[in-house]
Amino acid sequence: MLSTAVLLSVALLGSPASASAPPAAPNLPPNLPPEVTAAMAAAAKANPTGAQAMEEQVDPTAHLPGELVAPWQISMQFFTYLQRHDIEGVVAFSRQPFSFDGRPAATTDDIKKGWVHYLADTNLRRSTLYSLEVLPYEEMVKRFGPAPAKLADLPLKGAVIAVANIDGRANLAMLRKDPTGAWRVYGFSD
Predict the structure, then answer these.
(1) What is the pLDDT of residue 160?
(2) How far, in Å, CA of 31 to CA of 129, rounded?
(3) How far is CA 51 from the centre of its chain?
(4) Which SS3 state, helix, strand or coil, does residue 61 take?
(5) What's the pTM value of the predicted model, to 2 decimals?
(6) How far is the C-alpha of 119 from the C-alpha of 125, rounded, in Å?
(7) Could you tell me the residue ranges of all domains in the chain?
(8) Which among 11, 90, 21 is positioned nearest to 49, based on CA atoms?
(9) Per DSSP, what are the bridge partners of residue 67?
(10) What whole-number distance in Å separates Cα of residue 190 and Cα of residue 74?
(11) Which CATH architecture has domain 6-10+27-189?
(12) CA angle, 118 as apex, 190 and 160 as ends, to 5°?
């Protein structure tokens, strides 16, 4: 059986200035909520050269098992919005109930307040996302041991964990499918 943990380095390179028309939103996984699709299309429109550069590069999910492609794509968008301090984008990818390092946020308003508070204390705008790894929680436990005590109350069994290396620091996003079948982030820890 292939290992389901794949480390993918992410290099966000600029594209040539000769790009003529802004590209459409990147290929989107199925079953995304409309607010997520709209947020991704807006991001591609706001940064057409970045979206084009992403399209021109080798597919970073090519070596992932099929069941981890959509969580990787969602995680990449989530961490991109986080780095941009885009509250609406981050909230669009967040699911209720949400957990900030074990602290619960039950409503969308609570989640938004939690991200505003987190981003007020953190400057990620000039940070670099060096790598993104997605793996099932069970495999993460095999490789790194059990989750920290602050995450003990989260339903981690069966979840997918995204580990983003941002400026040499691990940032974790816990993902599950929502009732519509779309992958959403339900917990975050840094």
Answers:
(1) 95
(2) 26
(3) 16
(4) coil
(5) 0.69
(6) 10
(7) 6-10+27-189
(8) 21
(9) none
(10) 18
(11) Roll (3.10)
(12) 40
